[in-house]
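stage 2 :: seqdesign
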């Protein structure tokens, strides 16, 4: 098994949209993504213009996971991984790459929205990596977590 990590390119957008609907938890179909303003065109455009930079992981050329962030706010927008690849450190590597990018943009405080339900995998995943609750909830009803640290 050969894994390849690289920066996302606009041509990755179709596979990203497809993968988002195949995650174990918090999956979104194409229609659900469109309802919140995320389409193939907006995803592709965000990668192309730098407003939605990200990293992808490929296995034998097939997209298996990704992480995208917002360089203007310091938000980790999405981390998604196919279920068969969970528990192998791929999500953590993708998140670390995105954190590094956002830190390079000058952010000391990063944030993301995460389920407040302890039975959901992401709840423990982010906390294990040092993310802490802000005590607030975002517009989607997710708990806002933050990660503080030095700028790079």
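stage 2 :: out
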């Amino acid at each position: 098994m050969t894994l390849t990590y690289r920066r996302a390119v606009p041509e990755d957008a179709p596979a990203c949209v497809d993968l988002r609907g195949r995650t174990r938890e918090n999956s979104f179909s194409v229609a659900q993504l469109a309802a919140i303003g995320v389409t193939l065109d907006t995803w592709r455009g965000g990668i192309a213009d730098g407003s939605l930079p990200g990293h992808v992981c490929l296995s034998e050329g097939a997209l298996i996971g990704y992480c995208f962030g917002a360089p203007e706010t310091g938000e980790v927008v999405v981390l998604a991984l196919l279920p068969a690849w969970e528990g192998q450190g791929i999500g953590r590597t993708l998140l670390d790459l995105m954190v590094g990018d956002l830190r390079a943009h000058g952010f000391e405080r990063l944030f993301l929205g995460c389920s407040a339900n302890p039975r959901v995998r992401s709840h423990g995943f982010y906390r294990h990596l040092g993310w802490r609750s802000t005590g607030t909830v975002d517009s989607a009803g997710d708990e806002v977590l933050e990660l503080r640290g030095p700028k790079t």
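stage 3 :: structure notes
- The longest strand covers residues 62-70.
- The chain has a mean pLDDT of 91.
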